[in-house]
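Build the 3D complex.
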Amino acid sequence: MALLKGFIVTAGLLLCLSASAELLPKTHFLIPAGPGGGWDGTARGIGEALVKSGLVNDVSFENLSGGGGGRAIAKLIESAERQPYTLLMNSTPMVVRSLQKVFPQSFRDLVPITAVIADYSVFVVPKDSKLMNFHDVVQAFTADPRAVKVAGGSVRGSTDHFIFARAIEMAGGDPRKVVYIAYDGGGKAMAGILSHESQLLSTGLSEAIDMARAGEVRVIAITALQRLADAPNFPTLAEQGYALEFSNWRGVFAAKGLPPQRYLDMMETIEAVVATPAFEEVRRRNSWTLQLKQGDDFYQFLEQQELEIGTLMRQLGFLRPLPSPGQ
Amino acid sequence: MLDGMLIGLQTVLTFHNLMLVFAGCATGTLIGMLPGLGPITAIALMIPITYGFDPSSGMILLAGVYYGAIFGGSTSSILINAPGVAGTVASAFDGYPIARKGQPGKALAIAAYSSFAGGTLAAILLAATAPFLADLSLGFQSADYFALMLLGLTLVSAFSSQGEYLKALMMTCFGLMLSTVGTDLSAGVQRFTFGRMDLIDGISFLMLAMATFALSEAVMMVLKPSSNSEPAMRLDKTSLHLSLPEFTSIIPSISRSSVLGFFVGVLPGAGATIASFLAYGVERNLANDEDRKQFGQGSLKGLAAPEAANNAACTGSFVPLLTLGIPGSGTTAILLGALLAYGIQPGPRLFIDEPEIFWSVIVSMYFGNLMLLVLNLPLIPYIARLLLVPRQYLIPIIMFFSLMGVYLVSFNVFDIQMMVLIAICAVLLRLLDFPMAPLLLGFILGGMLEDNLRRALAVANGQFNFLWERPTTVVLMSLVVIAILIPLTRALWPKPKR
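Done.
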């Protein structure tokens, strides 16, 4: 792997044509999963843009999977002094898994730098489905909850599951009656609705947008408050009467104890890179929605999201209720 | 279809694209040979390089890397019993014994011919049927996958030597038990993780295969040198020679396994590993009594079948990828990402809207497979020379590569500790004549068996009627019953001896 790493770094150096002022001498991305997933793609995409735009010339990547992402977090905390230029890639599941106590750490044990992209949740049906909008879904669900089986590419109790349960709850249904069918990955979940085994797919917009554009599936609701510029024909849940907003952020974190100046430099570097044409190309290629939240804003956003998701998951029975004070 | 093939030929038959096929196959083979590094890593590394290319060239390169890596993986399986990727585990069952008998060159040559034939036959099937197969891969629901995995489990008899059915069954159950470790998909709870973060994602198949095969084999070579008697030095180890009867005897196995592998590969929920296990089991069950004794001891058919099947399955997995845009495995998920990055949406309209991409990928598969054969046959004598290394050096080499291969995947010392522990258990079990292959079969099928059963139950509202509601399930379940009944009747009413 050292060899591979060396190869990537060298390739990075070769690709670099123009070197402008560097705020950071190097950047090391710590990716809590194996090559090929969402975290990996985002980290490598940002890294590619950093090198191509000349903002940072020495960019390296490290894939450290395991523990639902917990091992990478634990490693960054343990070896904080030896990780001066390391950025840990993460996303909403970090908040969820920390609440579920999959791993003991939370975002508070790290320094949130920047949330870079946002991926809204969508509810998707096959093109020949009788369900035309979210109202139909609610009606079918109220008549028989087992008539709307919800496919998702992640384990029971994850965001795909509870965001649909939350929408049903807002519509007056019993969220605990939602039948969630867990598939091993988004691709197989998509196959699950196309084979009509399940009736509806709850997933991220980026996982469904291409199939929807190809006309194979229909997006019946997106969990944004306003229609997206990139996908204006996807109806929002809000316009169908349920003002539910939820997006899966992907962002980077640093280890605690970094000097204040480097904290600012890291934020500034990420802010600069997303404005470059190199990043724009990566963004367009992956249909990402840019949504920057930096430093303290990001921290407060995380606190807010933790509170919201925690409350929601307790209401839906995915988490044990908090012990009431005095007990 | 012929028009399509011509378009594809036009695209592929340029110097630039032929060089890319060559580069892809060579890189893939090299990376695949290293234990632990498989097609996913190989493709993920190559993707950034392809962004400058036009989409057809990019896909040609990546497809070359893909089957190159699968092909390369069988080399370490055969030579040192250390499967580089999950899809080549079954190749070690008979490939390694052939190599131990002093014919590593022959084993590698059979692997090369079978892979070539499997890949080429599957590419022909792909070209002829891809547009129609989209329906097939979507016709499979969880209930059918469950029946398919159950059918796979009945093949356990294929992995038991004479009179050792009980031991094989015990090892299968052990494998099924190990597969329950980790986070349970359908309930979202952790099982048997003992509060350890390292076990949340379950036990890695590659680690288990390396521990039970490569590492324990290295120890067995020390403990029982007589059982693995030094290959006779007179034999020309590097010879690729196959006699004509040998060649003709494996041809039916290769053809059957290629077709089987292709169709298993088409299903998004199965894949190359399942395909190779199924092909191995089917070939053993079809073989006559004489041949059957050879399985596990160095049967040529036992090596040819999984090798043809895993390459065919890789080609088959392009069907749901290209015609539906659905990735069935981690590898095809990366390929899908690359396609989308080129601005191409795979789906039913791909071969109408972008015929040059669709067909050039298929045509490049023929050339890729041919290239792999041409590339590897001359190299085999040099690669096989590894086994000329004296045992006192060879054993540490095997240990080093198997431990390193597992560490490189996870960078987790816990995995190494667990691997050593499992290897010690495996050595003890092997000394008591317990077979290791059923353990792996149980482990790999266990997870999918359980997930699909629970999905099928959830879809059927908790009723077991899904077992007979759909024709596909009924056919597969009948095959399961037949597969169980045949050996039973044979045991109860033995054929009168002539």
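Chain A touches chain B through 53 residues (CB under 8 Å).
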